[in-house]
Write a structure and sequence with these properties.
75% of the residues lie in helices and 0% in strands. The chain is flat and about 40 Å long. By secondary structure, the protein is an all-alpha fold. The model has no long low-confidence stretch (mean pLDDT 86). It has three helices and no strands.
């Protein structure tokens, strides 16, 4: 059985937990979110997507 979770949902949960346990401030969370938003609009978008795909593929293969 395969369970898929959108990466953006997983990252949102991580940010929420970091904010909850005061590991990061609200200002830093906003800056990181804005950085990700603007990074997605650059030519680095393809490279970042390939990197995330490779890492998630490698993690999926570890469990086999």
């Amino acid at each position: 059985m395969t369970i898929t979770i959108p990466l953006v949902l997983l990252l949102a949960v991580v940010v929420a937990l970091l904010l909850r346990f005061k590991a990061v401030g609200a200002g830093a969370a906003v800056v990181v979110a804005l950085f990700g938003f603007y990074l997605a609009g650059t030519e680095a978008n393809g490279t970042v997507n390939q990197l995330v795909t490779a890492v998630t593929g490698a993690l999926a293969d570890v469990g086999r």
